[in-house]
C-alpha cells in the first residue's frame, strides 16, 4: 500500500514549541494517533500534545477518511509552526484499525511510543510522568490503572479505577489506551477491523516485556464518550458502574481535578459523579 508522509511545521502562541537545549538529553517519545473523519476531536488531541511538558517528542498522525477530511486536517496542521508533527495520509477511506496502528509503529522514530487516541484528552504532564515511571521502575512499559471517563452528552465525569476489575498489577487492571513503552520491535497489532485490537496488543506486551501499572494518576487521561466510539454507550456505562471511585478518593484528588478541568476547558456546568450515579460536585 502506498502512503503519503507529510512532515509539518505548526500554530498559535499557546501551542508554539519552545525549544530547550536540555530536552536533547531526554529520549524521543513518539505519540501515535489514528484518525478518520473527526476534525474537531483530533484538533483537541493535537493541542494536548503541543502543550506537553515533555519536550523531546513527536506526534505521528495516521489518517484514513475522506479526501475532504484529509485536506482539512492537512490544512490545519499546515497553519502551525512546529517540526514535531508527521501526518501520514492513507490512500483508502477505510483501513482496518489494527493495520493503521501497525503503520504508526512503523512511522515512529522515538525510543518510546505513547498511545495518543484522537478522541481523548491528556494532561500536560502525561508523557513526563509515564516516562519517569518507566525509568524509575526499570520497566519496558507503563499503563495507568485508573482514568477519567467523560460523557459529552450529559457532561458527566467519573474517576474509574480499573483495579476494581482485577488485582493490582495484573493485565486486566491496565487501561489499554494509556500505553507508554519502549518502541516494540517484536510484536504487532492484529490487523482486523473491530474493537479489541488494543487488548490483544496489551496481552502481547505482558508476554514479551516488563510492565508497571501506575495508580492514582487518572487525571492524566480523559476517555471521552462522544457517540461515535468503537464501543457502544452501554459498555461505557458498565465501566463507570463497576469502577467508579468513592467520594473520599475524589476529595483527596480535588486539587488535581480542578487543575485538569481548568487546563482542558471542558464545557460547563460539569457533573462529577460518584458511585450509584450520585453527583458529588458540580463545576460551573
Automatic annotation (TrEMBL):
<dbReference type="Pfam" id="PF00535">
    <property type="entry name" value="Glycos_transf_2"/>
</dbReference>
<keyword id="KW-0808">Transferase</keyword>
<feature type="domain" description="Glycosyltransferase 2-like">
    <location>
        <begin position="31"/>
        <end position="141"/>
    </location>
</feature>
<dbReference type="InterPro" id="IPR029044">
    <property type="entry name" value="Nucleotide-diphossugar_trans"/>
</dbReference>
<dbReference type="InterPro" id="IPR001173">
    <property type="entry name" value="Glyco_trans_2-like"/>
</dbReference>
<protein>
    <submittedName>
        <fullName>Glycosyltransferase family 2 protein</fullName>
    </submittedName>
</protein>
<dbReference type="GO" id="GO:0016758">
    <property type="term" value="F:hexosyltransferase activity"/>
</dbReference>
